[in-house]
Amino acid sequence: MHSGDDETLKIHCLPVVEDELVISIDEGHAITCPFCGSVVVTIADGCVLPPCEHTQFIFINGEGFEYAEAGLEAWLKEQEERADEDEECCGFDVWDALQTYVEPDGLILERIDHGMACGPIKLTIWVGISETVPTLNPIG
């Protein structure tokens, strides 16, 4: 979990994050926590709520949270406000902020599922996992 230290959290104009931060999970496989082995997202039933204590967020299709740990949404709002005030910043991006949020001891597990409705559909699930145990706060 992050403190409010301005020097360490200047993420509103983010550097490029290393590719190894995001680990792809094959379609048709459950997303499990690499630290405790708990299933966070099943194959058929979706998210397991509440997730294990290592889960920082479950972010769906870049649109919203199925789950966010305590303080994450307030932290994102603060970062967005900072970006709005920074004249040198080119804008705020939630995905970039989430990648920064899981560092230094975390990672993001990504699963992309494909299906068919009135046409082809794609569902992308991102799960932020940290070795540091956070306080849980389900949304919804």
List key phrases describing it.
140 residues, alpha+beta, globular, disordered N terminus, disordered C terminus
Question: Would you summarize the structure shown here?
Answer:
With 140 residues, the chain is an alpha+beta fold. It has 2 helices and 7 strands; from the N terminus they run βββββααββ.
Order of helices and strands: EEEEEHHEE
- Count of domains: 1
Share of helical residues: 10-25%
Enumerate the strands of the largest sheet in spatial order, edge to edge or round the barrel: 1-6-7-4-5
Compute the number of strand runs: 7
| Shape type | globular
Structural class: alpha+beta
- Rounded to the nearest angstrom, the distance between the terminal CA atoms is 21 Å
Mean pLDDT over all positions: 80
- Bin the strand percentage: 25-35%
